[in-house]
Specification:
alpha+beta, Transferase(Phosphotransferase), domain 1, 2 domains, three-stranded antiparallel beta sheet, 13 helices, 17 strands, about 20% strand, Ser-Thr/Tyr_kinase_cat_dom
Length: about 500
């Protein structure tokens, strides 16, 4: 407020006080003046005084009266944004108006401030318009992402019974919503909304955990794993890990959403992931055989996924180290490009060296006996040390490699699919049966002679044997396995290219 305006306020206040003092002196010859103000000091729109006045202050008008003692002091003052006139006749201030301008500035009243109701209506309208624009942007980005999916180029895969083409690029859609630091990205309320928009199409697998269905969402196929009520801890553990850990990797099954729903008075636990039509590695190896180069790349992809799990990442998007604890061919899925991705983290153990914690979960379920390492079977494993769990994964990794190599063609020879130790234990071995074979008899899966005649297969056989040492610390690490296979893959590509050039 300027000095002039402040002075005006003081003036008016003084006038009003004095007006009140002299209000009862009508019979002393006081003038009757028109009185208009917002302070409620007027009586029937009039007042009594020695002088009537009219003021205009920056668009605000007021009328009233002065006592005789103060009118000289105020009536003959002039200010930059202030106009006042005084008169000494009854109601002489009734029709007073300001001059057209004061010091060159017009005295037209400024526009009135809109009432609060109008502001609220305008704000709501602006909010609705903004929401519509955001919705349009999201819709257009979805359309663009789906166009990318349709234009994905096909990749040739050098293996039998593998369809051409890439897997759907789910990330093109989900990256639109993912936010850093939120696990794989989607907020839980968004996950629930998506899960309830999925239509189940067909059941593609059953097991002790429940069922796996192929569903559709936004025109794309997704996998829906429906857990049985007795396996609730596995659902909870996977949901917990996927929502808190940065697990997005080409060789880890892509997570989409998790939801708990009620259907027919029963609770259903859903885990929604990327869909891979070739199914699990176990299913794939039943009816498909491989060339050595395809075998190598498949083994390498599993090793890459395990390295990502085992590695702690310290950055703005932290990832603790994770041990799988139930690695087997049934928990590995085959992608269209011939690579694999690791699934089923229901038994996973989490460790962070930087934050000094080891989280083993609260799942009463144990791993698969056929794939258990010796220290698990004889119960000598150090459960308080994270490295112990990683070493059991390496044991199982060697068994998975063994399954893959059995189905690899060398010199026109390929073996039928069989699970590890098929010739030493029954189809559903007990804990004691596995313990006798692995810990007491020190048996290992048998290796066909043909594997030693091919450089790639013989190198993989060497890795397998180093994964099966009885002493856990003597086994290879996932990183060493990956590096060895990567070098083998590079040398194989170089030899193939050189052979082409020679031809």
């Amino acid at each position: 407020m300027g000095r002039s305006a402040l002075l005006t306020v003081v003036l008016v206040g003084v006038c009003l006080c004095l007006t009140a003092v002299y209000a009862d002196t009508e019979d002393d010859g006081k003038l009757l003046c028109i009185c208009e103000n917002g302070k409620g000091t007027c009586t029937n729109g009039t007042c009594r005084g020695d002088v009537c006045f009219y003021t205009w202050v920056q668009g605000n008008e007021e009328k009233g009266c002065f006592p005789k003692r103060t009118y000289k002091e105020h009536c003959f003052s002039s200010f930059e944004h202030f106009y006042i006139i005084c008169c000494k006749e009854n109601e002489c201030n009734a029709n007073s108006t300001p001059p057209p301008n004061i010091n060159g500035e017009p005295t037209t009243k400024p526009p009135k401030i809109p009432p609060p109701e109008l502001w609220i209506a305008m704000s709501l309208l602006l909010l609705i318009i903004t929401g519509c624009m955001c919705g349009l942007v999201v819709f257009l980005r979805f359309r663009r992402a789906r166009c990318k999916l349709r234009k994905a180029e096909d990749n040739d895969v050098t293996m039998l019974k593998v369809p051409h083409g890439d897997d759907p690029k789910y990330s093109d859609i989900f990256d639109e919503f993912c936010t850093s630091g939120s696990g794989t990205g989607l907020p839980y309320l968004v996950q629930r909304t998506m899960a309830r928009q999925i239509s189940l199409v067909e059941c593609v697998g059953k097991g002790r955990y429940g069922e796996v269905w192929r569903g559709t969402w936004m025109g794309e196929s997704v996998a829906v794993k429906i857990f049985s009520s007795r396996d609730e801890q596995s659902w909870f553990r996977e949901t917990e890990i996927y929502n808190t850990v940065q697990l997005r990797h080409d060789n880890i099954l892509g997570f989409i959403a998790s939801d708990m729903t009620s259907k027919n008075s029963s609770t259903q636990l859903w885990l929604v992931t990327h869909f891979h039509e070739l199914g699990s590695l176990y299913d794939f190896l039943q009816h498909s055989s491989l060339e050595p180069e395809s075998c190598l790349r498949m083994c390498l992809s599993v090793a890459c996924g395990l390295v990502h799990l085992h590695t702690e990442i310290v950055s703005s998007q932290e990832k603790p180290a994770i041990a799988h604890r139930d690695l087997k061919s049934r928990n590995i899925l085959v992608k269209r490009n011939g690579q694999c991705c690791i699934a089923d983290l229901g038994l996973a153990v989490i460790h962070s060296q930087s934050h000094d914690y080891l989280d083993v979960g609260n799942n009463p379920r144990v791993g698969t006996k056929r794939y258990m390492a010796p220290e698990v079977l004889d119960e000598t494993i150090r459960v308080d040390i994270f490295e112990s769990y990683k070493q059991t994964d390496i044991w199982a990794l060697g068994l998975v490699f063994w399954e893959i190599t059995r189905r690899t063609i060398v010199n026109g020879i390929v073996e039928e699919y069989r699970p590890p130790f098929f010739d030493l234990v029954p189809s559903d071995p007990s804990f004691e049966e596995m313990k006798k074979v692995v810990c007491v008899d020190h048996q290992r899966p048998s290796l066909h002679n043909r594997l030693h005649s091919h450089p790639i297969l013989s190198a993989i056989v060497k890795i397998m044997k180093e994964c099966w040492y009885q002493s856990p610390p003597a086994r290879l690490t996932a990183l060493r396995v990956r590096k060895t296979l990567s070098k083998l893959d590079h040398d194989s590509d170089f030899s193939t290219e050189k052979l082409k050039q020679d031809i």
